[in-house]
Amino acid sequence: MITSDTQQRIIDAVDAGFDRQLATTRDFVAIPSTRGAEGPCQDMIGDLLRERGYEVDDWHIDLDDLKQLRGFGPVETDFSRARTVVGTYRPLNNAGNSLILQGHCDVVPTGPLDMWETPPFSPVIKDGRMYGRGACDMKSGTIGALYALDAIKAAGFRPTARIHFQSVIEEESTGVGALSTLQRGYRADACFIPEPTGCKMVRSQVGVIWFRLRVRGFPVHVFEAGAGSNAITAAYHLIHALEKLETEWNERAKADAHFKNLNHPINFNPGIIKGGDWASSVPAWCDVDCRIAVLPGWSISDCQNEILACVSNAARSHRFLSNNPPVVEWSGFLSEGYELKDSAEPEAAFGRAFNAVFGGDVQDLVFTALTDTRFYGLEYNIPSLCFGASGAAMHGFNEYVELDSLRQSTKATALFIAEWCGVEPA
User: Fold this and answer.
1) Which residues contact 320 (CB under 8 A, 6 or more apart)?
2) Which of 1, 230, 280, 407 is the most exposed place for a label (fewest CB within 10 A)?
3) Any residues with CB less than 8 A from the CB of 1 and at least 6 apart, and which?
4) What would the DSSP string read from start to end of 64-129?
5) Is the peptide bond before 138 cis (omega within 30 degrees of 0)?
6) Regarding beta strands 163-168 and 327-335, do their DSSP bridges make them parallel or antiparallel, or are they unpaired?
7) What does DSSP assign to residue 362?
8) Which of helix, strand or coil describes residue 274?
């Protein structure tokens, strides 16, 4: 346990460096790191780590190395430029517990730009918030973790344990960035991921399955539409069937220890729809990309089979699809849910850090989204904590992070590092 004087010196150092932290965060958010375009963000992180004297490992991800690992999800985009960056701090005196600090730099698409109040990649600070795509999810958290380490140094201390600072991609679609760090051999006594959690600790989180419905119809001129079969309306027939599966899974969720008190924790979303070639032709094709959640402990393969059975049964009740069955493709996440457990020691260390900053005990969050924590906890028995700032409109328009909560969560992160890894005078 660190002393109250050490705590205060680190807290003061976070305050002293916060303007610089915001400037770095603004530069990071300004990079449009959508899927496949994360390279400049990884360059920036690599430079920031080198400036601070960390050992930097920057490598291209080879999917063939990952395909047989638990939690792998198929990648359909150009992956030739995909990279992971890890900066390692090695202590002079190894006396504490090692730690992984991880953030993801990939962001989701912006949607129509005219629906944003300010340009998504021109971050703006106003009314105590920073606006921009990725400002909340989760670039501010990544930079906050880096400046938490800076604050320990600025306060006159150095950690007494190995720390891996990891910047990954693909968190929003497959998770293979995090998986690549484990395949590369990076391990620690605990992992901490500063996702935006409203200053609560994620206790249990859903897993996610991505899949695509490929529906085919029979094209004719619209004047004789009854002689053809509309692939788009047939796709809606399947969507309605999957909504019934969603209802069934939510009933099943009522037996879960953590999710039973949440209303509708399982969410199904048809997120992308493409189909047809001509407004006056009955469409011959329709593709629908879907996402559905699963709970911790649910088998991904069993849930996949339920999805396949649902789609097959719905097709059999359709005039055209009964003889022309749709195809289901797995198109991204095949990710299990994760429950934080067997983590008493890192949670106790974080509890002391949280109390010094916020006062009281940290509240638990039952999360209906997923994070990369699952890889560390499920497969490698590395307790994986997820805690970060408050914000809103993640994946929406006018995304923002609340700056006061970012300041406070950075302080809690810095104190947790000091508590968990130990510190000594620099």
Assistant:
1) 217, 218, 229, 234
2) 280
3) 352, 419
4) GGTTTSTT-----S--TT-EEEEEEE--SS--S--EEEEEE--B-----GGGSSS-TTS-EEETTE
5) yes
6) unpaired
7) P
8) strand
Domain 4-205+337-425 CATH (choose: 1.20.1050.10, 3.40.630.10, 3.30.70.120, 3.40.50.1450): 3.40.630.10
Number of residues that this document lists for the chain = 426
pLDDT in tens, 57-93: 999 999 999 999 999 999 999 999 999 999 999 999 9
Q: What are phi and psi of 275, to 5 degrees?
A: 180, 155
Asked if residue 71 lies in contact with residue 375, where contact means CB atoms within 8 angstroms, the answer is yes
Distance CA 289, CA 108 (A): 15
Query: Any idea which residue has 């399955």 for tokens?
Result: 209
Q: Provide the CATH number for the domain formed by 207-335 in this structure.
A: 3.30.70.360
User: Each residue of 277-325: pLDDT tens digit?
Assistant: 999 999 999 999 999 999 999 999 999 999 999 999 999 999 999 999 9
pTM score, whole prediction: 0.97
Closest to 413 in 3D by CA, of 360, 340, 368, 357: 357
**How do strand 338-339 and strand 190-193 relate by DSSP bridges?**
unpaired
